[in-house]
Specification:
The chain is globular. Strands 1-2 form a two-stranded antiparallel sheet. The protein is 76% helix and 2% strand.
Length: 501
């Protein structure tokens, strides 16, 4: 099954090349894109099953054995991220096709969208599968190049301005990451993650801590961890709804994934790094949700809640326990699904009412009852109301914090609880104003919402609810993944059968 490991990267890249050549044939573009992402999802599911049964699956690219050659690794964590990201990107693509039909009368958005979107997907998958730091850097750069095109689609002045801010900040993060890669190689003579797991342990504590902090800064910007998150609320809301949805759901989680991978594999037990992550987690939760309380636009409000809930994931990583990692991984899966769904619903609101400004909305529960139901279920899931997956994920994280104990862990438990309550407040406020109260102004008459947009959103809402149904098996799976991450041995032996030496 190792031969399947490169396919989540190769298939989208091939699809991007084909759709670029077929720029004037929108119907064929659509078919190729949907087919590629559907195949990606199927491959990801197979990899998930095999990684669970057999352990990490490894592909040595070009026949060059690690640590010399490029290696792709699908362990349980990477395979789970591939499944979730593939499902989300497929649903968002279908949504974008429906939106293009509603806005232009065509069955596809602008021609450049499809190849760029597929390159973005390939970058996400490459980052999840990367077995060395430089290939992880390549995945981030694929994301950056594609995301700049997507965030500036249609070239309005506002999108160009916010897109420029997005690119400048992420280029800075990439520069820090590249410098870190150079320093790691200078200190250890390798960039292979499995080999670094042994060689970094032999470095002086000061050198190791410096490398860890530089990588945390780079990944913290990508993941929008406070105080490196100020760029996100201004950048995401201006993009088209499908673009905003996939950015919010996936791109920040690639940064979180990189933090999980490097903290557990390269820097386990570094108390200074764990302390820094705990402080950052608490401030991210608190500052993000307080920013959301002050917003009057649905997209900006959701952008601040996105920042806030990144703090829960960092909280789990900072605990450096199996229970903490289980909660963090489960919450990543939950949040990718729910945050993407809510931004798609915001697009439906904008399509129906012509705005996402709460001051101009009202009465949507009567005018668009389906949208109201979808929003209510997803918002309550995000807020962590039982029995939804948001509640289960937060409960697991809070229990892990209580088990660790200590003043800082207890402080984060309190902050996490307060953040959940404030999330419920902002979700209820959005519902009451946009859907329940009488409209402040008459909304323009619009055609019925395209079935493809609604269908893709319903599918993601169903996935979010389904996470509650399969929470038991999913917690068991994430428990095994977290145990392997803490032990490190399964990953190292799969990549370097002769051992880390």
């Amino acid at each position: 099954m190792s031969t399947l490991v490169p396919l989540p990267v190769v298939l989208p890249l091939l699809g991007a090349a084909v759709t670029l050549l077929l720029g004037s044939r929108s119907s064929i573009q659509r078919t190729v894109s949907v087919g590629c992402l559907g195949a990606n999802l199927a491959v990801a599911v197979v990899l998930l099953v095999q990684a669970h049964r057999e352990g990490p699956l490894v592909m040595q690219i070009g026949g060059w054995p690690a640590p010399v050659g490029i290696v792709l690794v699908a362990d349980q964590l990477a395979a789970l991220m591939l499944v979730v990201s593939s499902a989300v990107t497929l649903c968002v693509l279908l949504y974008s096709i429906g939106q293009g039909q509603a806005e232009t009368g065509e069955s596809s958005p602008v021609a450049i969208f499809h190849p760029t979107y597929l390159v973005l997907t390939a970058g996400v998958c490459n980052a999840f599968l990367a077995g060395d730091l430089f290939n992880l850097f390549v995945g981030f750069e694929m994301l950056l190049a594609a995301s700049f095109v997507l965030i500036t689609l249609n070239g309005t002045p506002l999108r160009i301005r916010t897109g420029s801010t997005y690119v400048v900040v992420n280029v800075l993060a990439s520069t820090v990451f590249l410098i870190s890669v150079g320093l790691v190689y200078a200190a250890t003579g390798t960039l292979n993650l499995a080999q670094l797991a042994a060689r970094l342990d032999a470095l002086p504590d000061g050198v190791r801590l410096s490398l860890q902090l530089m990588l945390l800064v780079a990944f913290g910007i990508k993941a929008a961890v406070f105080p490196l998150s100020a760029w996100l609320p201004d950048s995401y809301p201006t993009a088209p709804a499908p673009v905003t949805a996939v950015f919010a759901g996936l791109l920040t989680k690639v940064g979180v994934y990189a933090i999980i991978r490097t903290q557990t594999l390269l820097f386990p037990g570094q108390q200074a790094g764990e302390l820094l992550l705990m402080v950052a987690a608490g401030l991210t939760m608190l500052v993000g949700i307080l920013g959301a309380v002050a917003q009057s636009d649905i997209k900006r409000l959701l952008s601040f809640t996105l920042v806030s809930h990144i703090g829960y994931m960092i909280f789990g990583v900072a605990l450096s326990t199996v229970a903490g990692l289980v909660g963090a991984i489960f919450y990543v899966v939950h949040h990718i699904t729910i945050q993407t769904t809510l931004f798609l619903i915001a697009g439906l609101v904008e399509q129906r009412a012509g705005s996402t400004d709460l001051r101009r909305l009202g009465g949507l529960a009567r005018m668009a009852p389906m949208v109201g139901v979808l929003f209510f279920v997803s918002a309550m899931n995000l807020a962590g109301i039982p029995p939804f997956s948001g509640f289960l994920g937060k409960l697991g994280l809070l229990q892990a914090g209580v088990a660790v104990g200590g003043p800082l862990a207890w402080t984060l438990v309190v902050v996490g609880t307060a953040t959940s309550l404030l999330t419920l407040y902002v979700a209820s406020r959005m519902w009451n104003i946009a859907f329940w109260r009488s409209p402040c102004e008459s909304h323009p008459a619009t055609a019925p919402l395209p079935a493809l947009m609604v269908g893709a959103t319903v599918a993601l809402v169903a996935v979010g609810v389904g996470l509650t149904v399969v929470a038991g098996p999913l917690f068991d799976y994430t428990g095994q993944a977290a145990t392997d991450l803490i032990e490190r041995t399964p990953y190292v032996r799969a990549v370097l059968p002769g051992g880390a030496s």
